[in-house]
Amino acid sequence: GSGAEVIALKLALAESGIDQNDVKITCVDINSWDYASKKLWNHDSNTSISEGSFTFLQMDMLDEKNLGKLGNLVQAADVTTLIYGLTELYDSAPDNANGCLEAIFKNLKTEGEFIIVDPWKTCFGKDMWIDRLAQQQANIESIGVFSRQK
């Protein structure tokens, strides 16, 4: 969720010495976390959120009607993250989860980064789908230290 992403980004910015108001952040969640996310972002900050630096969108990323909007957000981002719950989403709606991820990969900037943090994913179990998808997108034949690009 959005709270985890906000906290992680704040910590990373603080560690690197970057002022959080120099960064534009857009959080997306199916639930309304707008107020709580903004409070987290502002916590311990000497200044309030600069206009337009923090946006919260309540949106179901698995809904096919929202894939165009999701693609636009990814095109504008240098870093795209999915924090928690991806395997749960995949378990409940695999076709929609694949559509969401494909929209992200399709719209990711050439130099953009896509980070997935999902503690429920297993490397050797039923969740190898995510490894295969990343492998296909990266054009890599096998997973591991000695992977070869096609």
Q: Proportion of β residues?
A: 5-15%
Shape: globular
Determine the N-to-C terminus distance. 35 Å
> What characterizes the major β-sheet?
2 strands, parallel
Low-pLDDT residue intervals, each spanning 5 or more residues? 145-150
Would you report the number of β strands?
4
Averaged pLDDT, please? 78
- Class based on secondary structure composition and strand pairing: alpha/beta
Bin the helical content. 40-55%
What Rg is obtained from the alpha carbons, in whole angstroms? 16 Å
Order of helices and strands: HEHEHEHHEH
| Tally of helical runs | 6
Instruction: Describe the strand arrangement of the main beta sheet, using strand numbers.
Output: 1-2
Short summary:
This protein is α/β, with parallel strands linked by helices. Helices cover 43% and strands 13% of the residues.
Q: Keywords, please?
A:
alpha/beta; two-stranded parallel sheet; 4 strands; disordered C terminus
Present the secondary structure layout:
Layout: H1 2-16, E1 25-29, H2 34-42, E2 54-58, H3 67-75, E3 79-83, H4 86-92, H5 94-107, E4 113-117, H6 128-138
Helix pairs in contact: 1-2, 3-5, 4-5
Describe the structure.
With 150 residues, the chain is of the alpha/beta class. It has six helices and four strands; from the N terminus they run H-E-H-E-H-E-H-H-E-H. The chain has helices at residues 2-16, 34-42, 67-75, 86-92, 94-107, 128-138; strands spanning 25-29, 54-58, 79-83, 113-117. Strands 1-2 form a two-stranded parallel ribbon. Strands 3-4 form a two-stranded parallel sheet. The chain is globular and about 45 Å long.
